[in-house]
Write a structure and sequence with these properties.
The structure holds two protein chains of two kinds. By secondary structure, chain A is an alpha/beta fold. Chain A has eight helices and ten strands. Chain A has a domain of 182 residues: Rossmann fold. Chain A is 34% helix and 23% strand. By secondary structure, chain B is α+β, with helices and mostly antiparallel strands. Chain B folds into two domains: 185 residues, no CATH class; 232 residues, no CATH class. Helix content of chain B is 51%, strand content 19%. Chain B has a six-stranded mixed β-sheet with strand order 10-5-2-11-1-12. Chain B is elongated. The two termini of chain B are 37 Å apart. The chains are: A alpha/beta, B alpha+beta. Chains A and B meet through α1, α2 and α3 of A and α1, α10, α11 and α13 of B.
Chain lengths: 263, 443
């Protein structure tokens, strides 16, 4: 049974403009992210996809626009609150894994909890994740001794250790062979289904694009909604086109966020 | 709780690895602290030498109080009866002041005195002022000061200016004769002839001769050399105070009318509180007196040391600045090399302030460790070099070089080193917290 999630955006990006010097990177970008969905962003290299992830995570500040997380504009928060938001609400997966070679797989997985000394049952949760992602045999290994697919699974475990609402992935399969890439794609789908996580994935991998609920394309500074491969645009899960800046007002976002909180 | 301990463990482990890197980048601090310790040890040794050997003889709480019209450049006039004298009112006023711990009065016998002596067959005589001062004045200045008194019938003890010994030895040297030390001349016999208008009342051991026209009387007494001193610049001999007052009393009516027989020349006084010296000087000046103080010399010596210190501090400051710049540069390199880790931790939820504080804390730890090493290295090197310094620099051969081993210097070297290291890490730490995160993690 599919819920109508359109009225409950977990995250809403509203009217984002970003310039680096005289070069416009993003212009009037609007979209929403809902729980339990996979949103894919494609585009040429240097088009601003990763920059957009930086804005969503609160690491980069746009020249103009707002980013609402559960109705609250994260761009108005200070560094400490935004850091907490990244630690607790956002998980990151990168193309080059970005694991620390000094640490074992287990230590890498548990790393985000280290920045929150009051996190509860972190080791227990990490062991559960290791079982869930079939990493038991390699949990004591150091990343440099592992394959790309194994490293990326560790990176995914690290991304979800704090049970975040949103996982931002930047070319997660870009450095993997076909088989490993397929595994990772399956893992994303599994996590979305079983844990109700929202994924925002910057990718060129057609398999991920095909399995996505929303597909956006970033070109010439503008973000446009695409129909996923094999589907017509009208067959997409919802009509995010309607979730433009005009529709996703601050008031409506707050209202839906309240509902989501009550739920 | 276990998680908290684990977090601390990972934090320390991470810091330990960073500290090892920082150790290499902050190596310059070791040199600056070592240099600082050597400089401090050298400075303190020189300072102690100056205090003990150059300023040690000066009692800075001791002042000379003189008549206002005393002329410094007319030494003989100042010593003779023509020089300025203190009035009785001034003497009383000074003695009544409660600013002083001790007051000693220099007086001068108010009669013409001729000193006669014979050495190596040469007989010589000269007219010389005869001064007197309380024997307690020589306490701490002369070992046998308590013997400096007059006993009627015995030779009058006399203290001569030290320069006379120098002149005598010069004379002996150029005539191929052996030179004298103070102890050789102690007890050396001479005689004095005091001229009065009429004979004084009887004085045991004195021979009184009247001139042919009976207008003058000469009282002849034996004297013996007691010691030499340079406490006064006045040309003249010092005899016991009780001799001068004794003779003056015996001769007070010798001129047909009462005469005190001696004059007040100056005071030597020790002030109770050196900090209140300016107020004391004001009071004395209002009495028509002037004050000479060794404090001025000590102040000047201190001023010279301050100038040397200021110069040295400037040099050290420049070195510290250069060290900060070089460590800053090395730290920037560290930030570049560790940019991946910094970026990743920022993405995973570490705050900017935590990165800055961690970086500075690590740098301060490294600095403190270098401070401790520098303290011991500086002391060791100084102690080692101390044996050879005099050989290289004969001008300071008398200086006793002592390494600076004390808690204050230890804390100073550790604190300064930690501060320098932390200061040089501040800007790189801010850079580290502001790295272009996505760019860094995509490398």
């Amino acid at each position: 049974m599919k819920k109508n999630r359109q009225n409950n955006p977990l995250l809403a990006v509203e009217n984002i403009h970003l310039k680096f010097g005289s070069r416009t990177i993003l212009k009037d970008v609007n979209f929403t992210i809902e729980p339990g969905t996979i949103t894919v962003i494609t585009g040429k290299s240097g088009s601003g996809k990763t920059t957009l992830l930086g804005i969503i995570s609160g690491l980069l500040r746009p020249n103009k626009g707002k980013v609402f997380y559960k109705g609250k504009n994260i761009l108005k928060w200070g560094d400490i609150r935004r850091s907490f938001y990244r630690n607790k609400r956002i998980g990151f997966v990168f193309q080059f894994f970005n694991l620390l070679n000094d640490y074992s797989a287990f230590q890498n997985i548990i790393l985000p909890t280290m920045f929150n000394p009051f996190a509860k049952n972190a080791a227990h949760h990490a062991n559960e994740l290791i079982d869930y992602l079939n990493l038991k045999n390699i949990s004591s290994h150091h990343p440099e001794t592992l394959s790309g697919g194994e490293r990326q699974r560790i990176a995914i475990a690290r991304a979800v250790i704090n049970n975040p609402d949103i996982i931002l992935a930047d070319e997660p399969t870009g450095n993997l062979d076909d088989e490993s890439a397929a595994d990772i794609n399956s893992l994303f789908i599994k996590l979305r289904k079983e844990n109700d996580k929202a994924f925002v994935i910057v990718t060129h991998d057609h398999r991920i694009v095909e399995s996505a609920d929303y597909h956006y394309h970033l070109e010439n500074t503008e973000l446009t909604l695409q129909a996923p491969a094999g589907k017509k645009k009208s067959e997409t899960k919802s009509s995010p086109k309607k979730t433009t800046a005009k529709k996703v007002t601050k008031k409506s976002v707050k209202k839906t966020a309240k509902k989501a909180t009550r739920k | 709780m276990i998680h908290l301990l684990r977090s601390i463990y990972y934090g320390l482990r991470s810091s330990f690895k960073s500290i090892l890197t920082a150790f290499l980048s902050s190596f310059g601090i070791l040199f600056i602290i070592t240099f600082l310790i050597i400089y401090l040890s050298f400075r303190t040794s020189i300072r102690d030498f100056i205090d003990e050997n150059l300023l040690g003889s000066l009692e800075i709480d001791e002042i000379e109080i003189l008549p206002l019209n005393e002329k410094d450049d007319n030494v003989y006039a100042a010593s003779s009866r023509q020089g300025a004298k203190l009035t009785i009112d001034q003497v009383k006023a000074v003695r009544e002041m409660d600013d002083f711990l001790e007051v000693y009065t220099l007086i001068m016998l108010d009669y013409r005195v001729r000193l006669r002596g014979e050495m190596f067959g040469n007989r010589t005589s000269m007219i010389l002022p005869f001064f007197a001062i309380e024997p307690e004045f020589f306490r701490n200045k002369m070992p046998d000061w308590e013997q400096f008194y007059y006993k009627p019938g015995r030779p009058v003890k006399m203290i001569a200016p030290k320069f006379t010994l120098v002149m005598l030895n010069n004379y002996l040297y150029f005539n191929g004769l052996p030179q004298f030390k103070i102890k050789d001349l102690k007890g050396f016999p001479m005689e004095i002839q005091i001229e009065t208008k009429r004979p004084p009342r009887s004085i045991p051991g004195a021979e009184i001769n009247e001139s042919k026209d009976e207008s003058k009387t000469h009282t002849e007494l034996e004297v013996s050399m007691f010691n030499f001193t340079n406490i006064t610049e006045r040309i003249g001999a010092i005899v016991p105070m009780d001799f001068v007052t004794y003779f003056a009393k015996k001769a007070e009516v010798s001129s047909g009318r009462w005469k005190r027989g001696y004059q007040y020349l100056q005071f030597f006084a020790r002030v109770k509180d050196i900090k209140k010296l300016p107020e004391t000087v004001d009071k004395l000046e209002k009495l028509g007196l002037q004050v000479k103080s060794d404090r001025g010399i000590a102040d000047k010596a201190n001023q010279v040391m301050k100038i040397i210190d200021a110069f040295s501090i400037t040099i050290i400051g420049i070195l510290v600045l250069l060290t900060i710049v070089s460590i800053f540069n090395a730290n920037l390199n560290v930030v570049y090399l560790m940019s991946h880790k910094f970026s990743l931790t920022r993405i995973l939820g570490v705050t900017k302030i935590r990165i800055i504080l961690t970086f500075i804390f690590e740098a301060a730890i490294v600095g403190a460790i270098y401070g401790i090493i520098g303290y011991y290295a500086g002391n060791y090197l100084f102690s080692y070099a101390a044996d050879y310094i005099s050989g290289f620099l004969p001008d300071i051969a008398g200086v006793k070089f002592v390494a600076q081993r004390n808690t204050e210097v230890f804390m100073l070297s550790m604190g300064l080193s930690a501060l320098v290291s932390a200061a040089s890490a501040l800007v790189p730490a801010i850079f580290a917290s502001n790295i272009n995160l996505f760019k860094a993690v995509r490398r």
